[in-house]
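YM 10:42: Homoserine O-acetyltransferase sequence, as discussed on the call
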Amino acid sequence: MPIKIPESLPARSVLESENIFVMTETRAVSQDIRPLSLLILNLMPTKITTENQLLRELSNTPLQIEIGLLQTVSHESKNTDNDHLSSFYTTFDQVKGKRYDGLIITGAPVENMNFEEVDYWQELCEIMAWSRTHVYSTLHICWGAQAGLYYHYGLQKKPLSKKLFGVYPHKTLEKNVPLFRGFDDVFYAPHSRYTEVTAEDIASVPSLRVLAVSEEAGVFAAARADDRQIFIMGHPEYDSGTLAAEYFRDVGRGIPIQVPKNYFPGDDPTKTPVVNWRSHGQLFYSNWLNYYVYQTTPFDLTQLLENQAPVPGSKSSATA
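YM 10:58: structure's back
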């Protein structure tokens, strides 16, 4: 939570120059407080694992958050029990009349397919179109980020020569971005994907900017100019054993796969992985919740209306 200080206190300018968030008394007394309403569109086949990972990151904050879980009806889940889905998940038809402070769109293991070949693509397009007018801030993860950049801005994903698989160092490109407030000069995050959207393509869209990159892994984070849409290509929410589980799964299936980079000590898969991304992952989600949702979302969500109007020249009109 921010510290509240007098507006004229000299420390205010010093702290703000160091990218430390402070709240003036004037702003504090004008704030209304209510629980945040957050929706997670879970596109992963192992939904319970993804729920655990994301909820762990979102729970470590003093904010009160009401979580809703969303599934697509145009795809039948084969890896999650129907009783779990019927008990805890809702459908787009059930929520499309509501408004939310935040939305998370997860990744999905469909990178090697064209977007239009994914069986729930049209439903996802409807949800992404709806997010512009019914959600204050949307966080897109991995394939969800690639799908969002394609749908909203027409940016096509590109195949990599081999799977990007491991834990990679990154750096931020702008000093005072609240999303990376408190980060070290170099931070690590896991990646697991076969495709990418390049920094050059993202920079070609005037309303987008690249926020963090890796020399080896490419773009880590990008955002719309008003920060209402965030796109991340990595998985800061991954558990310590997630990459190991993917590696041994593929080995067991006879699928060619390299040992995940910078993960097992000495690249020896018999050893316990070293976790060097957990604190930054936690900080990333806390920063998104605090600075991109809680501090900026309207108290009355009906005020969202057309605040996220379609981007001129985007793919929206052609794919929705």
